[in-house]
Specification:
Distance between the termini of chain B: 59 Å
Number of strands of chain B: 27
Radius of gyration of chain A: 24 Å
Structural class of chain A: alpha+beta
Largest interface: A-B, 72 and 82 residues
Shape of chain A: globular
Number of helices of chain A: 9
Shape of chain B: globular
Strand order of the largest sheet of chain A: 4-3-2-1-5-6-7
Structural class of chain B: alpha+beta
Distance between the termini of chain A: 62 Å
Number of helices of chain B: 10
Strand content of chain B: 35-45%
Number of strands of chain A: 23
Helix content of chain B: 10-25%
Oligomer: heterodimer
């Protein structure tokens, strides 16, 4: 890696090497039966250069020829984006303890036993199809640049997920855990799944009307996604975001605080620096409904004339570095989910949606099918909703938040709570 | 390269193995707001090994040749542990041994076009779209992908197939006040660079739709007679029906297995659905899948009756059906899974005018914008559409989201057009991305479809 930087320094004004090294193992059970065991070993290198004020990018999986990689990066820079930033000198970053040595001693036998245990537990109490998948991995990513930055970060990860499918359909209920080390599925959550599964036998087509809706943590992202698209600096710089020139304005309900926590040790994307070496930090995108911060990388910080927030992301070495949110977290409210349900005379609770990626996202519009949801009547769940859609606009419905659940669910790359909204358009019969 | 794969796997003690080494060269130009965000050419490579032992199948992907030994160890260990813990034993449908090296059938080879020309053509379309009324932003990119695949298996099959995909795609965004509208533009295919040349008129047409959408009225929720254009009919065929023709999905959802029984009458008499990756010139063209099986045309539904499905060698053996050559991997990072190649409804004899006139009052729905299925229920967004009154196309409508149930919808097909248009840019995301997933068809009239919303 140092060799590549040294080589590049002789030919270009600035250079940066980003590298990853990963291994992972996974196992899955389909319909209660052990079905798959797969592994992956991968690595990669991306080189960015800035020369004569223009930036270029090249990458490879297998560095066989450093000169050729540098040549590709220089050709890319000849025609590349004009940039005015410098690769940063970052020496001190907050250490995040995201590696657990215990990951090294997980055996596949342990994973299979966990699967068998969970499946047997559910099968003894319910009919229906049960799927289970689990896996673990180790990853290192790091960055060296010609300014003198040299950073690397190691993570371990573990996940396990169980799913029950409603008879005759492809939708169902699921529960999963993510951690840096082995973690059992939450027994209480599995029991809740079993209870809901029993209720799901009663199918209800809700009336077409306007009613309160509780959106569970797994699904609330469908709405928050619209906000992310609006605070994305690419859309703000292009002048097409509805939040252009609206910093420090209250946009959504003051019950909503949406922040990022890139230093949380129990989340999957945590790291003290972003993928171009800027230190990451905790801050709010929306604080009590007020639009506070645009998440930027070096390029868009410079274009928008703000400080970079350390939000540069690369999904893989092949991806172009892009500004993105890291570990978004919705702050919990004050009411329990049970109390929220009890307060509803007629409404719906939504566990999973389909079609969240269609519609005019930038405008905040949504029109989604409820794939798993339950009817609430007089404070009690009475059955599974069928053939039902929700629609609206986030700038409208997120201004009609009644309550936010008092506990947050860690979904790995984000933390969320159930949110109760008033007056959502529901289309049924 | 095949020789190296043979050396790497020599002495491997398995019932079956296959190994694939691939290089993927990607050249691209990405523009946003008239600026080049990124451009250049890059090469990636890697290996995928699959082994079968005692009826258990396991796969390992790896990057470097020096990792081969530990990859082989992991694959064997994975297979052993599956076999020891009660996995249902798998077997392979026999297929002919193949030794072949097909080249990509190209009219104009994108590898022979300079990066400078690719930049120029991307800028050209960007400038052209920006010059149209109310356009606030254009995000557009040119990419060509050159996959060079080397496949070798323990039965002696040796294949080196080239796949080259060319694509120019992006979004044109119009704005009025705070309202924005986005329309997608995509040209490309599997047969060369000429696909992205001389498409100005179509690009301008898309910008006009994006402009008109600013003053279109949101559609009123309800149930309508509906004509889907070929793009939208293709999305329906792919998303709502096609995925349930993939044997791995059916196999993993026993609840659907009974409904999707071969011989079951599931659709209207006039409905025939085909997957044909062998059709020359279309985006999804290939000769061999990533299990070394020659792909063939499959009649999935014939006159409303389910007649076949898409398989890999393992699912074909398990369900005792014919192998079809549909085990496809995204690239060198992945083991293959079952994918559609090129799916469409077979055209019938009616013109669009005849469809409109038969419909009388209803909706004429334009290009797709995202779709999702959950079991037999689906939802698809459409970019734009028109109200039809007395067989005549009238006002433009927007914010269209169609919802429905697969089986009801298959029976609601009323008339099928004689035209035939296939999509030029794919992107099916079933676990892995398949950029060559092709679909389309004729215009199709449905007796009843539901638009969700306000």
């Amino acid at each position: 890696m140092e060799h590549l930087i040294d080589l590049a320094k002789q030919k270009v004004d600035q250079a940066e090497v980003y590298f990853t090294e990963e291994s992972s193992d996974s196992i899955s059970f389909s319909d209660g039966k052990l079905d798959k065991a797969d592994s992956s070993l991968s690595s990669g290198i991306a080189l960015r250069v800035i020369h004569d004020g223009k930036i270029g990018l090249a990458h490879t999986r297998n560095l066989l020829d450093a000169d050729a990689l540098l040549r590709q990066a220089m050709i890319s820079a000849e025609n590349g984006l004009e940039v005015k930033f410098r690769f940063p000198l970052t020496q001190d970053v907050t250490k995040t303890d995201t590696y657990s040595v215990s990951i090294e001693s997980i055996s596949k036998k342990d994973l299979i036993n966990e699967g068998k245990r969970v499946i047997e537990y559910i099968k003894a109490r319910s009919e229906g199809q049960v799927n289970f998948s689990t896996g673990f991995g180790i990853g290192t990513r790091g960055l060296i640049n010609s300014t003198g930055t040299s950073l690397s970060h190691r993570t371990s990860s573990y996940y396990s997920s169980v799913e029950m499918i409603f008879p005759g359909t492809g939708s169902g209920l699921s529960h999963f855990v993510v951690d840096k080390q082995w973690k059992a599925l939450d027994q209480e959550k599995i029991d809740e799944m079993l209870e809901l599964f029993a209720i799901s036998r009663n199918e209800i087509i809700p009336p077409t009307s306007v009613m309160p809706v509780i959106i569970m943590p797994m699904s609330i992202y469908a709405l928050i996604w619209r906000l992310h698209s609006a605070i994305n600096p690419v859309n703000i710089h292009a002048g097409i975001s509805p939040l252009c020139n609206r910093l420090n304005e209250r946009i959504i309900s003051d019950k909503i605080t949406l922040r990022q926590d890139p230093l949380a040790e129990d989340m999957t994307s945590s790291c003290g620096f972003d993928s171009e070496g800027t230190p990451t930090r905790q801050y709010a995108y929306f604080d009590k409904g007020v639009f506070q911060t645009i998440p930027t990388d070096l390029n868009y910080a410079q274009k928008l004339n703000v400080e970079p927030t350390g939000n540069c992301n690369r999904d893989s070495v092949e991806s172009m570095p892009q500004p993105n949110i890291i570990n978004p977290c919705l702050d919990p409210g004050v009411k329990s989910l049970q109390d929220m349900i009890r307060s509803i005379d007629q409404g719906i609770i939504v566990h999973s949606m389909m079609g969240a990626h269609s519609g005019n996202i930038l405008n905040g519009d949504f029109s989604v099918g409820v794939s798993t949801g339950f009817m609430i009547q007089k404070g009690v769940l009475t059955g599974r909703v069928k053939d039902c859609m929700l629609s609206g606009n986030v700038y409208d419905v997120l201004n009609r938040v009644i309550d936010i659940e008092d506990r947050s669910t860690n979904l790995g790359g984000r933390k969320a709570c159930a949110v109760m909204l008033d007056g959502v358009s529901v289309a049924g019969k | 390269m095949i020789e190296q794969l043979k050396i790497m796997t020599s002495g491997l003690d398995t019932d079956y193995f296959d190994i694939r080494y691939e290089t993927k060269q990607v050249e691209q130009v990405t523009m946003n707001k008239k600026e080049i965000r990124n451009c250049g050419s890059n090469l990636g490579d890697g290996y995928v090994l699959r082994v079968m032992k005692k009826g258990a199948v396991a796969s390992v992907s790896f990057t470097k040749p020096e990792q081969a030994e530990s990859a082989i160890r992991k694959a064997l260990e994975n297979a052993e542990i599956l076999a020891a813990n009660g996995t249902t034993p798998k077997s392979l449908v026999p297929v002919p041994k193949i030794i072949d090296s097909p080249k990509a059938p190209l009219i104009e080879d994108p590898r022979q076009i300079s990066l400078t020309e690719k930049i120029a053509i991307t800028k050209h379309y960007s400038d052209l779209l920006f010059a149209q009324p109310k356009v606030a932003n254009v995000e557009i990119g040119y990419t060509d992908f050159f996959r060079n695949k080397f496949f070798y298996n323990s039965e002696g099959t040796e294949i080196n197939e080239e796949l080259i995909t060319t694509r120019l795609s992006g979004s044109v965004i119009t704005q009025e006040g705070t309202l924005t509208q986005t329309v997608r533009v995509a040209f490309g295919g599997s047969d060369g660079f000429q696909r992205v040349r001389d498409r100005e008129a179509e690009a301008i047409e898309k910008a006009k739709i994006a402009c008109d959408l600013l003053s279109a009225e949101p559609v009123k929720a309800g149930t309508y007679r509906m004509i889907l254009n070929p793009g939208m009919a293709g999305v329906f065929t792919h998303e709502a029906f096609g995925h349930f023709s993939e044997a791995d999905i059916v196999r993993d959802l026993p609840a659907l297995k009974e409904k999707m029984r071969l011989g079951a009458k599931l659709g209207a008499d006039i409905l025939t659905i085909i997957d044909d990756a062998t059709l020359p010139g279309q985006l999804g063209f290939y000769r061999y899948d990533d299990e070394g099986v020659s792909v063939r045309r499959v009649n999935l539904m014939t006159n409303g009756v389910l007649t076949a499905r898409l398989h890999d060698r393992f699912t074909a053996a398990e369900m005792n059906e014919s192998v079809s050559g549909h085990a496809i991997a995204e690239d060198f990072r992945f083991a293959p899974i079952i994918r559609m190649g090129n799916i469409f409804i077979q055209p019938d004899r009616n013109s669009l005018e005849e469809l409109l006139s038969a419909m009388d009052d209803g909706l004429y729905i334009g290009d797709p914008m995202g779709g999702q299925t959950s079991g037999e229920n689906f939802t698809f967004g459409a970019n734009y559409g028109y109200l039809v009154k007395g067989g005549k196309i009238t006002r433009m409508i927007r914010d269209i989201n169609i919802v429905g149930n697969l089986y009801q919808t298959l029976n609601n097909v009323w008339m099928i057009g004689s035209d035939f248009v296939l999509k030029e840019s794919g992107g099916c995301g079933k676990g892995q991305t398949n950029i060559r997933s092709c679909y389309g068809g004729p215009h199709v009239l449905f007796r009843e479809l539901t638009v969700g919303g306000k």
